[in-house]
Amino acid sequence: MTREPDDSSKQLAARVGAVASLCEVASTAQLSTSIYQVALRGNAVTLAGTPGNDVMIRLDDAKGRHVRRRYSVRDLDVAADEFTLWITIEHDGPGSVWVKKAQPGEPVDVIGPRGKIHLDPSAPWHLFIGDASGLAAFYRMAQSIELPSRAIFIVEIDASDDALSAPFDEQLGVTGIFVNREQRSTSDPAGLLSGLAALALPPGDGHAYLFGEFHVMRVLQSALLDRGLQPDQISHKAFWRSGRSNAEHGEPEKVED
Ligand SMILES: Cc1cc2nc3c(=O)[nH]c(=O)nc-3n(C[C@H](O)[C@H](O)[C@H](O)COP(=O)(O)OP(=O)(O)OC[C@H]3O[C@@H](n4cnc5c(N)ncnc54)[C@H](O)[C@@H]3O)c2cc1C
After folding, report:
1. What is the pLDDT of residues 232-245, one digit of tens each?
2. Whose C-alpha in 94, 140, 192, 230 is 20 to 30 A from the C-alpha of 1?
3. How far is Cα 108 from Cα 205, in angstroms, rounded to an integer?
4. Helix, strand or coil for residue 90?
5. Ligand 1, closest atom to CA 114?
6. Given ligand 1 and candidates 84, 210, 246, which is best to mutate, with the most ligand atoms within 8 Å of its CB?
7. Measured distance CA(96)–CA(127) in Å, rounded
8. Is 84 touching ligand 1 by the criterion CB < 6 Å?
9. Does 141 contact ligand 1 (Cβ within 6 A)?
10. Which domains does the chain have, with CATH numbers?
11. How far apart are CA 28 and CA 84, in angstroms?
């Protein structure tokens, strides 16, 4: 068995200024109805980058074609040379299918670190808005906030047990609003909009981070501008798109419906 990442991964990594490594699955665990955790071992410090970064994994789709999928790093264990990802599973796609079957010792072709959105160190408060696919990034970023500060989470979930928690410094003011999706479509922003409407924004120029479904994130971005945030106070990234697989390179397609 080869112990090297695929040549295409090495070439892509060189183009994007990242590193390609062949990791192995250390463990997997189902954390909730919609979220699996996978721990990957190998070159962890480099691949995991800094809070907000993600890694790109090379997988096979149902037709045996190679695709890449991106997942935010949730946590880094330097001593164990491992990092963890939280992967949503309540849909059928190469990523969700892979993580449910992944076995310890299995090789995984990984490119990292990827991503350009990081914590704004000057912000007096940080607002994280999205769905379960954003939780890993939200919690890792929030755990790196310098004190004193505030972290506010507005997260839409599909099942009550998807409201996973994370340990934070006691001096970090934390507000968490979990909105149950109920029967709404995955492209319906109403749930997150109602969560945002219920929130009085703290004083000062905070920063908002929007990670989730393509259409929903666009509407939430406009809603935050309407609430008086400036464009440079909002970091926005569509992680997936309702009704469409992400493209081969791992991002949602930006074509109009
Ligand atoms: C920078 C970046 C970071 C990301 N980080 C994470 C992360 O930490 N955790 C994570 O779970 N995802 C994350 N994603 C999203 C993940 O890469 C996509 O959800 C991916 O499309 C899922 O791949 P898949 O192969 O399972 O499904 P795909 O083949 O992409 O999609 C199959 C079908 O499932 C639907 N679908 C995809 N994702 C969801 C979902 N979350 N809920 C409901 N339906 C869905 C699609 O609309 C499509 O109809 C990230 C994406 C980017 C770009």
Report:
1. 999 999 999 999 99
2. 94
3. 41
4. coil
5. 1
6. 246
7. 27
8. no
9. no
10. 7-114 (2.40.30.10), 125-240 (3.40.50.80)
11. 9
